[in-house]
Design goal:
Blueprint: E1 5-7, H1 12-19, E2 27-29, H2 35-42, E3 48-51, E4 61-64, E5 67-71, H3 76-81, H4 83-88, H5 90-97, H6 102-105, H7 110-116, H8 122-130, E6 133-138, E7 143-147, H9 148-151, E8 152-154, E9 157-158, E10 164-172, E11 178-186, E12 194-205, E13 210-219, E14 226-227, H10 229-235, H11 242-259, H12 266-279
Parallel strand pairs: 1-3, 2-3
Antiparallel strand pairs: 4-5, 5-10, 6-7, 6-10, 8-9, 11-12, 12-13, 13-14
Length: 294
């Protein structure tokens, strides 16, 4: 097997030039935590590796005109600690904090997590709930922006062209009246791949104790993370009380059934999702859907 050629662009202009040489057998390398493992385990090698780590202008978190913009090379450790994300998109910071080990979080990137398209990608579940858009650049220097939901097409598959690289993820910053959280279940308590995950965003009226503007994304269920409209409608306008918590948990079980009917893992995932749904706590004021459990 021939060895892959390695290109190490040092900026956007060099990246564009490198992308011009990309083929369907080429791969982009950011953190590389999944790519390198796959190459070793599956015994394959690309014809060309484009190492993005030198394109440092893709490492940032910015708040501009109510939009949070996150560079594709921003690591999970940076996402976890960033004050803007912890204030305006806490579910993303929480998702990043639960990825692998500290060593993995120091190198794994948000752009790589999207491009890898794993069904259990933690930050992708949070980004789906946030309604994120993805900006890309191709070998012709053309920039494009499209919803994350259009990028994800299946397990390990995206709509990205061979000469297309993710450069930025953007989404509206959450306001002071919005609450958000991310939770997952893995095979063990730490350094684990998600077997189920939930990202939840609501507007919370503290006076009326009502939730609205509900967004629920589920991960590690089916081929990619997705929002569940039926589950969102179920909670919309409801009080934060024990009955709503029960409806949410039952609705999560039903969402799993709709997503993977007949799958051998369905019984386990339904019951695990029930427990995960009851464990969900929203940020800053530690609000739960069941106020009796605060």
């Amino acid at each position: 097997m021939p060895h892959a050629e390695l290109l190490t662009p040092g900026g956007m202009q060099e990246l564009t030039a490198a992308l011009q040489r990309a083929t369907p057998s080429s791969r982009l390398l950011a953190g590389g935590t999944d790519l390198i493992r796959s190459m070793h385990q599956d015994h394959w090698e690309p014809d060309l590796l484009i190492d993005l780590t030198g394109v440092r202008e893709l490492d940032y978190v910015r708040l501009e005109d109510g939009m949070l913009r996150v560079g594709a090379l921003t690591t999970f450790a940076e996402l976890q600690a960033d004050p803007l994300l912890r204030r305006h998109a806490r579910c993303l910071a929480e998702a990043a904090a639960q990825v692998g080990s500290a060593q993995i979080r120091n190198v794994a990137t948000v752009g790589g997590n999207i491009a890898n398209a794993s069904p259990c990608a933690d930050t992708v579940t949070a980004l789906v709930a946030l309604g994120a858009d993805v900006r890309t650049v191709d070998g012709g220097g053309r920039s494009a922006t499209r919803p994350l939901a259009q990028i994800l097409v299946g397990s390990g598959r995206t709509s990205l062209a061979p000469d297309e690289a993710i450069t930025e993820v953007s989404f509206a910053a959450l306001g002071a009246d919005q609450r958000t959280t991310f939770a997952k279940i893995g095979s063990r308590s730490t350094v684990t791949v998600a077997r189920l995950s939930i990202a939840l965003i609501v507007k919370y009226d503290a006076g009326a104790c009502i939730v609205s503007g509900v967004r629920v994304a589920l991960g590690a269920v089916g081929e990619f993370a997705f929002r569940d409209a039926r589950l969102e409608e179920l909670l919309e306008g409801r009080p934060a009380n024990a009955e709503s918590a029960r409806l949410f948990a039952d609705g999560c079980m039903e969402a799993v059934r709709r997503a993977i009917p007949g799958r051998y893992s369905l019984p386990y995932k339904q019951h695990a999702m029930l427990g995960l749904a009851y464990d969900v706590r929203l940020d800053s004021e530690n609000i739960s859907l069941n106020t009796a459990a605060v």
